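Need a sequence for this fold. Nothing fancy.
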């Protein structure tokens, strides 16, 4: 059975940092593209970024470039989202997702991901 479980969310002040983790099980993690998405109240789900399976090359949505970093640990079936210089507009539920391709083709296309976690809340507020 496939599981994706996010952790690490919380309340942080503007300018602060958080590191989200996603623990994966039940599929061949090392062969899957992994993505992070977020959804703020009243807004559509938004792609944050993705990391491919083998070479760990990454891509990011423009508003998070230079602030967010995605990494993965294939030995332990983990993917991470390091978020720095957080802004109030980063407030959302963050979810990790997995798609069964080693390369992240059309990385921002949510229907391309087969498995999803439940999400973790990130709130950026003073």
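Here you go.
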């Amino acid at each position: 059975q496939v599981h994706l479980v996010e952790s690490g969310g919380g309340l942080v002040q503007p300018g602060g940092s958080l590191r989200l983790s996603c623990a994966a099980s039940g599929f061949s993690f090392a062969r899957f593209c992994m993505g992070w998405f977020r959804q703020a109240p009243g807004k559509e789900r938004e792609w944050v970024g993705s990391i491919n399976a083998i070479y760990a090359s990454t891509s990011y949505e423009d508003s998070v470039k230079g602030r967010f970093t995605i990494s993965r640990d294939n030995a332990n079936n983990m993917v991470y989202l390091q978020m720095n210089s957080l802004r109030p507009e980063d407030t959302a539920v963050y979810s990790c997702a997995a798609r069964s391709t080693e390369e992240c083709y059309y990385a921002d296309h949510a229907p391309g991901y087969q498995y999803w976690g439940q999400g973790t809340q990130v709130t950026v507020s003073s």
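For context: The chain is about 0% helix and 45% strand.
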